[in-house]
Amino acid sequence: MRARKLEKKIYSIFVEGELITSSASAAELSKLMENTYRDVNIALANELVKIGEDLDIDALEVIEMANKHPRVNIHSPGPGVGGHCLAVDPYFIVASTPETTPLIQTARAINTSMPDFVFSRTKILMEQINGKKITVLGVTYKGNVDDIRESPALEITQKLLNDGSYEVSVFDPHVNQSWIEKDFKKATLDSDLLLVLTDHNEFKTLTEEDLSEMKQTYVFDTKHIFPNHVVKNHYLSLGNIGSLSRIERVPSF
């Protein structure tokens, strides 16, 4: 206890926020639970996407309405959870007490399933539009960073490449790798589908002119950030994934 008081006194010299004294174990579990809470919340949103697909209800609209309640804050769904924190920290808790963490383990399973979910829906969409080329937008685990650790976007991209059914081009302005096309127009040349997997700011302002090299202008936006008015009836998100079976091939711009 005396050591904690001394530590708090030292930190108070340069820390303006509230200083909390606790045991090292409680402090560590608190940090792990911060990220686990977010992982579980995202899993709820991702499960809602699958419910919406079955019921043909826009999951994003449901989330927007539910979050108007002052005590509800459902996170955004997506292609999975990555990075060195959210995708990892829950496992430390599970490893320490596996018998008492069924909710955390289920949430991990749901989020881990999302790359396969996006991959399978991408294949269905490509079959319906008779597509041959996919342009992947973003392979980092979150927007505006160059970090690809535990990235679900990278996992989906690898699944598409391993499948061998399509030509796959990758564009990510934040990642410098030889297999990533640095020119957007070249990345989208003769492409049938933009698959948005990361919410980089650069993707939020794309225009009709930017897509002029595409063969067909379809977009599957797993991050709900693409300006969907640019592609009008060609736009599919995790919110309206239930409409996948009704997509008809329409002329490109």
What can you tell me about this protein's structure?
By secondary structure, the chain is an alpha/beta fold. The protein has two domains: 24-108, N-(1-d-carboxylethyl)-l-norvaline Dehydrogenase, domain 2, CATH 1.10.1040.10; 114-246, Rossmann fold (3-Layer(aba) Sandwich), CATH 3.40.50.720. It has seven helices and five strands; from the N terminus they run αααααβαβαβββ. It has helices at residues 2-11, 24-55, 59-66, 89-96, 102-128, 152-163, 184-187; strands at 133-137, 167-171, 193-196, 218-221, 235-237. The chain has a five-stranded parallel beta sheet with strand order 2-1-3-4-5, with helices on one face. β1 (133-137), α6 (152-163) and β2 (167-171) form a beta-alpha-beta unit. The longest helix has 32 residues, at 24-55. The radius of gyration is 21 Å and the shape is elongated. Residues 135-228 form the UDP-glucose/GDP-mannose dehydrogenase C-terminal domain.
Quick structural summary:
InterPro entries: 6-PGluconate_DH-like_C_sf, UDP-Glc/GDP-Man, UDP-Glc/GDP-Man_DH_C, UDP-Glc/GDP-Man_DH_C_sf, UDP-Glc/GDP-Man_DH_dimer, UDP_ManNAc/GlcNAc_DH. This is UDP-glucose dehydrogenase. This protein has 253 residues and is of the alpha/beta class.
